[in-house]
Each structure stands twice: as structure tokens, then as C-alpha cells.
Design brief:
single chain; mainly beta; Pdz3 Domain; 22 strands; 11% helix; flat
């Protein structure tokens, strides 16, 4: 009866209880099936200057005019041009004495280049200067190679797409290539090199297909059914997806009680009988600093007595 009476008393008040993850989980952007690991560029380029270029148009709204040179729109960090001191907004006037009044001129030069060192003449504000750019050779043999796809949260594992032969039938599957701490797969009897064939009874097309369906269609802490081939037998197993747990992040009961906490930065606030202008009692903690306030008149704040720095 006491809890029922309390419920009636609190009903007219603004009551709110919010929950949040006990451990912060990052937002995962899903990759497509086909992923390019190199920047978008013409495959015919022989050297890379690490630049994005555009026409050198005047800034006037009344008379838009294309001026000599090409304007640098973006510079790749630690790229060839960046190392040579080229900055965004610079205007490339000439390369090796050849005027460059259109981005296609530089693109053609990169395609036909038989060397790697180029003399750039550029303009920055009212200053014209020269700099040597060491163009970086583009080779398909140096392109990044995909190792595997990763699900860092729900199953905390890495997977690789494969075609496997089972009972004289070749099917698309996903091989487990890495397990991360707290992965729920070992508890379900799934080990590295095991092959996952189906998720909830539906065949898999690839490693990305498995990850996409788990993240898109299931909640953390939910059970999923996996069909696994361990090299000898095809078995059905149930996996409980990793769950970061829940914590109360906010309690608000009108002016009676308010509580809020955060993980980043680590902080807590609590107030009792908060009447907007003052609270009978309030408490706050931000990292190591703690503050107590009574009637808005008395405040006691404490922090660590001495900050020390650890040395290796």
C-alpha cells in the first residue's frame, strides 16, 4: 500500500527515469560489399601530387572570371604537395615552366610523367614562389589489401568471406579469423577458423552480410542462431550478442529529486528539493572535483590534494 500511495503522490510531478549503456559503444558505419581502400582517382595516373584542384575563379559576385593558374582546394596530409609547403588556397601557376590554367593540364602531366621531381611555381596572396614537389609513384602493387571485416561490438570478432566445399557442395560462407576480448563466440563453442554458414537459418553471402544483418536486425544482448562448420560437422548454436549493460543516467522527480550522471566526462549531479532559485541540498562531481551546496548559501568544494604525473 505504501508504494501505491507514493505512486499517486508522484503522478502530478514531472517524473523521468532514463537509462544509458554502462559502457559507451561507438556508432558503427557499415561498409559496402565492395570497398575501395585508395582515394578516388584516375587509374591512369602515374604520380600523385596529393592535391585537389579547381579553376582559379575570381571571388567577385558581380563578375565571375577565370584567372590564370589553378587553385588548390585540398591538400592531402603528409602528401607530396603538403611536404613541399603547398597550402589550401594557393594558386599553381606553372609546373616545370608549363602554364597550368586548368586542372586537366596537371592531370595530363601526372598521367604522362616519366619522372618524380617537379618544380612548382605558385602564388599565395601577393607572393609568387617556387617549390620542389616529389611526386609519389602510383602502383597497383602498393595498393592496400583487405584482410577481413570486423564487428567490434555485437560479436566482437573479425570475419573473412570464403567459398567452402561441404559434402561436395560449394557454398558462400564466413570464416572467423580473429576474436577480441569479451567476444561471445567462444562461449557458444565457436573458435577461430570455424566457418559460419547461416544466420537464423538464412544463408550468408559474405562476411559483410553477416555483420550488416547482425547490427541492422538485432539488439545488443539478443540471441541469434548460427549454423557453423567446424571442419568435421555442421552444428547449430545460439550466440548471446555482447551486452554493455545498462545504468541509470538520469532521475527527475519534479522539484523533489534530480539526479544525472555521465561517463564522458565522468560526472554526477544530485539535488534535493530544487526550487529553481535554490536547492535545499545539491551535489556535483566532475572527474575528481566534488562540490556540496546547502540552501545555495554554503558551498564546499574539494579536489585531489596534489596532482602527480606518472613517468615511464
Amino acid at each position: 500500500m505504501k508504494s501505491y500511495a507514493l505512486l499517486i503522490f508522484l503522478t502530478p510531478l514531472a517524473t523521468c527515469v532514463s537509462y544509458d549503456s554502462a559502457i559507451l559503444t561507438p556508432t558503427i558505419s557499415l561498409s559496402s560489399e565492395e570497398v575501395s581502400l585508395i582515394p578516388d582517382r584516375d587509374e591512369n595516373l602515374r604520380v600523385d601530387f596529393g592535391l585537389e584542384l579547381g579553376l582559379n575563379e575570381s571571388d567577385s559576385l558581380l563578375s565571375v572570371e577565370v584567372l590564370p593558374g589553378v587553385r588548390v582546394r585540398n591538400v592531402v596530409n603528409n602528401g607530396a604537395a603538403d611536404s613541399a609547403g603547398i597550402q589550401i588556397g594557393d594558386v599553381i601557376l606553372a609546373i616545370d615552366g608549363m602554364e597550368t590554367n586548368h586542372p586537366d593540364t596537371i592531370k595530363t602531366l601526372q598521367q604522362a610523367a616519366a619522372k618524380s621531381t617537379f618544380e612548382f611555381r605558385a602564388q599565395r596572396n601577393t607572393t609568387v614562389f617556387e617549390t620542389t614537389v616529389e611526386g609519389r609513384a602510383i602502383s597497383s602493387s602498393t595498393a592496400p589489401e583487405e584482410l577481413y571485416r570486423i564487428d567490434p561490438i555485437a560479436t566482437r570478432a573479425g570475419y573473412r568471406s570464403e567459398m567452402v566445399s561441404i559434402n561436395n557442395e560449394t557454398v558462400a560462407a564466413t570464416r572467423v579469423v580473429e576474436l577480441f576480448p569479451e567476444s561471445p563466440l567462444p562461449q557458444a563453442g565457436i573458435a577461430i577458423d570455424d566457418v559460419i554458414l547461416r544466420l537464423n537459418g538464412v544463408n550468408l553471402n559474405s562476411a559483410q552480410d553477416l555483420i550488416t544483418r547482425i547490427i541492422r536486425d538485432h539488439e545488443l544482448g539478443e540471441e541469434v542462431a548460427l549454423t557453423v562448420y567446424n571442419g568435421d560437422d555442421v552444428v547449430e548454436t545460439t550466440v548471446l550478442l555482447w551486452d554493455p549493460g545498462r545504468r541509470i543516467s538520469r532521475i527527475n522527480i519534479g522539484p523533489l529529486l534530480q539526479y544525472e550522471s555521465s561517463l564522458v566526462p565522468s560526472s554526477e549531479t544530485f539535488s534535493l528539493l530544487d526550487f529553481w532559485l535554490f536547492a535545499v541540498y545539491s551535489y556535483s562531481r566532475i572527474e575528481g572535483e566534488r562540490s556540496h551546496n546547502i540552501f545555495g548559501l554554503f558551498n564546499i568544494t574539494s579536489d585531489y590534494g596534489e596532482l602527480t604525473e606518472l613517468e615511464d
